[in-house]
């Protein structure tokens, strides 16, 4: 502390927030600190739950507050060390000068990103400004972005999750691309999807870069990506898996002709089909689709996956509790396999995958397709196998509870009359 705790006193008529702020000033600050840091200690998302992501944001920015407030280092140096090494002088200046009462990012704190042409600071309930939102605003303003770009950045996943130093460096390049092309984009939701797409592609491939990509090329790419991207308001965000596993996104993907595949459990001895032939004319896997395996990083999104597959997550509370507990503790991570097709408004949900993260490695605990059969269709299992091989996940440990007498869900073959 910069002053003894016993020397602190506070007006008893002040609010809890006012008392906490007074205590912060007494214990941590020799010099006046930026207003954007005043909510760091008690930071939590609008829904009120102190998630792990919120806790990480609070810890990082509280360390910035303590070091800068005590005069041990500059605000910029503290932000570079605790948050993002690429913070420039201009970004640090914008951060220091930010006024929460007029900040464009304050609108996102209340969960209202709005539209590109809407009023920047509409009247409404006062919600404490997230220090991460304040940082995103400072970064965008320093890069020459407009207020609507600020709101897009705050509404994207980068507005609620503080990444590693490398991830934060990439976020800067993504924001730079968005600011450069802001006049060519239409809406906040579109820009938010672009940022999420960039970050997910970079997580899957460290060599992925935004430099040289045109707006037309990016919009074409996110059309299929957006189909399988589902978000909810006031949703609890999960921290990403602890082992660095990444998703898979393949456009115009097909299974090579002549592929033969045996799905475990789906074997004649158990009343199953046996070996499948895939990829040839008239066979599964021959029609180009966008295949995506994406980590499920929120509570409502996990329950939504259960609804799409009609499994126990849809309405069985005990199952929801077990799954969510494992996700919160990061002993498991959950992944969604979907297909997207040009011209269709909804993706096809093919499987929910659970990976256990053990000391000896990552293993598949569950991989379930739509009920009532639950065993993934053979083409879905093909892509699960490819993903596991790429990410070094042991698929041989897969367990499944299935009614083999039930036919594979009539998706491509029967209801749509195609492969």
Question: Topology of this protein?
Answer:
Layout: H1 16-28, H2 52-69, H3 75-82, H4 89-97, H5 106-109, H6 131-142, H7 147-155, H8 165-180, H9 188-204, H10 215-227, E1 248-253, E2 259-261, E3 276-278, E4 289-295, H11 299-309, H12 317-329, E5 332-340, E6 348-358, E7 361-368, H13 378-391, E8 393-394
Parallel strand pairs: 7-8
Antiparallel strand pairs: 1-4, 2-3, 4-5, 5-6, 6-7
Short note summarizing the structure:
This protein has 419 residues and is of the alpha+beta class. The protein has 13 helices and eight strands.
What does this structure look like?
- This protein has 419 residues and is α+β, with helices and mostly antiparallel strands.
- The protein is built from 13 helices and eight strands.
- The chain has a six-stranded mixed sheet with strand order 1-4-5-6-7-8, sandwiched between helices. Strands 2-3 form a two-stranded antiparallel ribbon.
- The C terminus is likely disordered.
């Amino acid at each position: 502390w910069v002053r003894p705790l016993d020397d602190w006193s506070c007006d008893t008529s002040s609010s809890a927030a006012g008392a906490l702020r007074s205590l912060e000033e007494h214990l941590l600050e020799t010099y006046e600190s930026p207003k954007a840091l005043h909510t760091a200690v008690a930071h939590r998302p609008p829904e009120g739950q102190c998630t792990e992501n919120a806790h990480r944001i609070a810890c990082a920015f509280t360390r910035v507050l303590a070091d800068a407030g005590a005069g041990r280092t500059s605000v910029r140096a503290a932000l570079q060390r605790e948050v993002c090494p690429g913070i420039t002088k201009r970004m640090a200046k914008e951060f220091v000068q930010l006024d929460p009462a007029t900040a464009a990012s304050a609108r996102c704190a209340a969960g209202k990103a709005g539209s590109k042409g809407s009023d920047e600071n509409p009247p409404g309930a006062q919600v404490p400004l997230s220090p991460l939102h304040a940082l995103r605003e400072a970064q965008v303003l320093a890069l020459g972005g407009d207020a609507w770009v600020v709101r897009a950045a705050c509404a994207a996943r980068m507005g609620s999750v503080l990444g590693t130093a490398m991830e934060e460096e990439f976020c800067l390049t993504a924001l730079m691309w968005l600011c450069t092309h802001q006049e060519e984009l239409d809406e906040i939701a579109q820009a938010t999807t672009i940022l999420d797409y960039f970050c997910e592609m970079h997580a899957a491939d460290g060599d992925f870069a935004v430099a040289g990509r045109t707006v037309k090329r990016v919009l074409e790419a996110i059309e299929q990506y957006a189909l399988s991207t589902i978000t909810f308001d006031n949703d609890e965000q999960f921290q990403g898996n602890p082992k660095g596993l990444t998703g898979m996104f393949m456009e115009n993907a097909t299974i090579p002709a002549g592929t033969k595949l045996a799905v475990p459990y789906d074997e004649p001895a158990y009343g199953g089909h046996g070996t499948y032939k895939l990829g040839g004319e008239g066979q599964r896997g021959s029609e180009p689709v966008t295949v995506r395996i994406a980590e499920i990083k929120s509570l409502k999104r996990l329950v939504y996956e259960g609804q799409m597959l009609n499994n126990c997550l849809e309405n069985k509370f005990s199952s929801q509790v077990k799954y969510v507990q494992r996700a919160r503790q990061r002993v498991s991570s959950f992944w969604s396999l979907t297909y997207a097709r040009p011209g269709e408004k909804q993706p096809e949900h093919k499987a929910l995958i659970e990976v256990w993260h053990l000391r000896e490695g990552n293993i598949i605990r569950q991989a379930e397709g739509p009920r009532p059969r639950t065993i993934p269709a053979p083409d879905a299992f093909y892509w699960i196998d490819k993903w596991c091989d790429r990410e070094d996940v042991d698929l041989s440990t897969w367990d499944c509870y299935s009614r083999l007498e039930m036919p594979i869900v009539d998706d491509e073959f029967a209801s749509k009359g195609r492969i």
